[in-house]
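User: Hey, quick favor. My workstation is busy. Could you predict this chain's structure for me?
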Amino acid sequence: MTKSFNDILSNAKLNPHINELLTSEKASKGMEIFKKRVNMRLTQKDLALESGVESRVISKVEAGFDEVPLKIISEIENALERVEKRNHATID
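Assistant: No problem, here it is.
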């Protein structure tokens, strides 16, 4: 039986130390970026090319590493918005 991402996340949140890390601002933004990127069917490499941020840094952001500056996270979010706008423009 395989577990879903949400099952694993729920189990991880039972540990107070892990829960604190997962609920930090950067961890929350990282999860949002991950979900948005996957829903848009982008790879980390695709997002790296669009944002100018190395894919290894995007991986750290999505994993919730606290060492990544908010400025970098913002650059990644802006890149996702640009791609989303482009995708909507081609659909309309």
